[in-house]
Structure formats: C-alpha cells, structure tokens
Write a structure and sequence with these properties.
Elements lengths: L2 E6 L6 H11 L4 E7 L10 H11 L6 E6 L3 H7 L4 E6 L2 H18 L2 E6 L9 H9 L10 H15 L1
Parallel strand pairs: 1-2, 1-4, 2-3, 4-5
The structure holds 4'-phosphopantetheine (PNS).
Length: 161
C-alpha cells in the first residue's frame, strides 16, 4: 500500500491546504493528514478543533484520515510505516526552508518528501494571514472551508465582546 503523510499546524485549515490534500490523495492509496501538537504554542484553535475542522474539510475523500502527532515527524512516519511526506509549495519563499527540512528528514530516517506546487488561485493563502484578516473583521469566506469561516467569525465576535 502506498502511504504518505501531509503534516502541518493547520491553525486553521485553508483552501490552500485542501488543494494540496486533494491532489496528494490522488497519488497515494492512503493519505494521513497529521496535525502537529506543539505544547509550547497555543495557536488560535486547540488541536482537537483543528482536527474536527480538517475532518469536515476532507469528508469527501475516503482515503484521507486525520491524526495528530507530537515530536519529530520522522518518528511519526516510522511508527506508522509512512515513507513519504507531502508538502505544498506556494512560492520560492517557501522553498528554502522546506528544502532544508526535506533534506534533514531524509538524513534522519530516509523519508522522502514530495513537493506539490499549490494551485495559483490559492498560492497567496496562509493560516496566519487568514486569522489576521478574520480577527479584524475581514471576509475570508472564499479562502477557507465554510465550517472554518463560521468558526473564525465566532472567534472574532468573542474577541470583540
Ligand atoms: O504548517 P506548518 O507550521 O508549516 O508545519 C510545519 C511542520 C509541522 C510540518 C514542521 O514544523 C514539523 O515537521 N514539525 C515536527 C518537528 C520536526 O520533525 N522537526 C524537524 C524538521 S526537519
């Protein structure tokens, strides 16, 4: 069985992530979307909520499952018998750091990385920008799945009150 992992913070999932997940799902028998648990960094959404939002976003993809991990990504890969990491590349600015991580993950555990160039329509998206815009009351409904948009609006309302 050809298996791959698509790791990230997903705080929250955007249409850019969904694009990469969709396309990676077409290349592997099983794709695990793995949310990094970073105890030192709270983020806007707790990990359980990020997972819930991701599950909703990939509900139409039967070969995709959502999980979380803490620690080194290569340890997660080894524990789950996953030989490939899939990463989306938006622009050249992503490349330098992603290349370094890909080379390191290969050195640490012979795990390969596959880079998927994001669709140009979503190349400008990032979770941080989406959060910033939403928290200041901007409209991100075209940039994120519906459930994420709803949750961001709730958070923005909570912050204002
Ligand atoms: O969505 P992000 O924040 O860009 O995702 C980054 C992530 C989670 C893929 C990366 O930080 C990661 O792999 N973290 C796990 C810790 C690890 O393995 N570090 C060594 C990387 S060479």
């Amino acid at each position: 069985m050809r298996r791959a992992v698509c790791p990230g913070s997903f705080d929250p999932v955007t249409n850019g992530h969904v694009d990469v997940i969709n396309r990676a799902a077409g290349l592997y028998d099983e794709l695990v979307v793995a949310v990094l648990v970073n105890p030192g960094k709270a983020g806007l959404f707790p990990v359980e909520e990020r997972i819930e939002l991701l599950r909703e976003a990939v509900a139409d993809l039967p070969t995709v499952r959502v999980d979380s991990f803490q620690g080194l990504l290569v340890d997660y890969c080894r524990a789950h018998d996953i030989p490939v990491i899939v990463k989306g590349l938006r622009a050249v600015s992503d490349f330098e750091y992603e290349l370094q991580m890909a080379q390191m993950n290969r050195e640490l555990a012979a795990i390969e990385t596959l880079f998927v160039p994001t669709a140009p329509q979503v190349g400008h998206l990032s979770s941080s920008l989406v959060k910033q815009i939403a928290m200041f009351g901007g409209d991100v409904s075209r940039l994120v799945p519906k459930a994420v948009d709803d949750r961001l609006r709730e958070r923005a309302r909570e912050q204002r009150s």
